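Troubleshooting entry. The earlier prediction with zinc ion gave an output that would not parse, so I re-checked the input for stray whitespace and re-submitted. Clean input:
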Amino acid sequence: MKSGLFSIVAVAAAICAWTFVDRTSPTNRRKVPGSVMTIVREGRLRADIVLPAKPLDCERYAADELKYHIDKAFGVSIEIVREGKYRASKYPSHIFVGATSAAKTINLPGRKLKKDEWIVRTFRKNLYLLGRDSDIKYNDIGNIWNPTIYGTIYAVYDFLEKEMGVKWIWPGPTGEVIPKRNHFEIVRINRTGIEPLEERYMHGTVPWGMPKIGFSNEESAKRYCKEQNKFLVRHRVGRRRRTKTGHAFESWWKRFGKSHPEYFNQLPGGERRPAASGSLVTLCVSEPGVWKQAVADWKTWWEKDGRRWGFEPWVNCCENDYVSLCQCKRCRSIDPPDPRFAKSDYWNGKMTIADIDRIRKERGSYGLNAMLCDNRWGIPKDDPRLRHIPSVADRYARFYNAVQEEVRKINPDARVVGYAYENYLEAPRKTKLDPSVVIDIVPRSYFPYDKVESDYFREVMLGWKNAGVKEFLYRPNFMLAGGNYPFDQGRLILDDFAFAYTNGMKACEFDSLRGSWACHSMMNYALIRAFRNPLHGYDQAREELLSAFGSARYEISKYLDGIYAYTTQWTFDDFHKVSWQNCTGGNHGGGSYHNSPAILGEYFTERFFTDNYRLLDSAKKAANGDKEVIARIEFLRKGLKDAEMTRRTRIAEKTKLAAPGDKAKAAAFDAAFKAMNDYRATVEDDLICNFRYEARTEMRMKWPHKEGNTKPSKSGRQMEY
Ligand SMILES: [Zn+2]
């Protein structure tokens, strides 16, 4: 009887085990055809992780990440040992991580690897995970202001994703999707890989120190940075080369304003000086003295610092942050005929220097800039379609060519990098670019990123390509939109990302990562995923994200698709209206990077929130008690709640502003603001949002956040705001 019962139990257990096994990936089956190595057998470890005797910090980081995921997946604690110390007999198999002697003995890597390159390889009963590495300090891993050469880490991530089915959908534990199992065999693997983009990162990731604003305590702020940073490294955010771009001539007015006025833009009336502040002056780019000075500055930098610090020998010719203004005869003679010059008051002579000074007084430093170009990412006050904006790209193309020619005489490897930006975003029409010139393209878009924007961007990029450009850096601003509220304009952005990649994009730098992970979950995941596969696309990323929601997948797809539909229903006209109904600080339409919550009263309705809470409730029900899935649903809900509280605060603020001196209304705003912050304090450890970023934005609207006592970073790199 006893043995009979035992048999029944054993058979039942076997059936259960088989059923369990069969539903998961093939690597979970007992006997894997062609299996070369067992890492876990029936819940028991059959391998350890072996590092070199003296590992680099990035090899240790890679081993720690591998251990973290193996432990979670199998409920074990895999050992990390070092060569020379481990007992080869303890386990039948080993996972060799980094440049181990064991790898060397089987001729791995066998050649000099390229930067970012990695290898995942089995040999006999062992696994080898290695790549091109450099000596980066453990805590500096993820700092994109240095080259991020750590291929071994990428080898580990490749292994985790492809062999173990791991996904990271947002920062922190709730975003880690680690399939659980108790058995793991692997078959023969022989893969190498390299990231498709040389540089892939976002501004505003705030990794290195963070003043205490927005978070109630320093530990939570630090935790946010650390987890976000880890997530970005997992998605291979990094840069294998070091380049110098960005506004290059900000110190020139100070240096040469008196000695070389001919370097600078000639304004109406003939004067050469800044139209706004000195750092915003633009150049007379047809002036040969400018070309020579740019090359001389580069040479000094290259010999002193550039080469020593491992920079690319690029001459940064990216103009200052202003619309190009030079009206001198020589510059104008380069501009091809364009009827828009005659229609533009700046270019047809109607606007005087007195007008320019008045505009600056009335509309601030960027007032003139906003009138003379079409950077819709600023949500312009005047409808740009009513203005005439001629492109002066030909003079910039000639400028880049001229500097390229000069610098080539000194260093044949040197390359010029210059913007396609402001009123020289549209491609040159008669000038062909020297094939060495790299163009840093800054699309005008912000929000909405619609078909009009997409078509415009494609036309512009193809124009530059047809003018001879072989290599582009892509530097969009559209992530500045969306604040801390539900927002997703990812689909077209992803389409255009793929378009850019197929047409010569070699690097991408987004401005800026707001870190609203709960409310921007779909868009952020799709964009970050595209960094390492530019052709991945929105819909594939959507499938991956939804796969983390188990039996609540359908409800969450309705939730995420609803956010997408809500965002993309906004036309430029509708949004323009709401934006300028909520202007703050004179020159900033609401909803811009300056004041993203200003529009919230009109942008959302009460019903938007009640409907979406209801959807999340039904998702929770559908999750059937799956704790991980429920935690993810709650993560989304917390973001939604934060957006709702922020909206209430904005509505209370508007009510207060409409009734100056009304103490009850002022008190109602204070109460709403306090309730919002109190709520944030309860969820700040869940990584739903970078509350510091939001607090900084809200402070620009004079919401009374208080600076904490934490000092800014001492690393020399200031926060990207
Ligand atoms: Zn000029």
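This one parsed fine. The radius of gyration is 28 Å.
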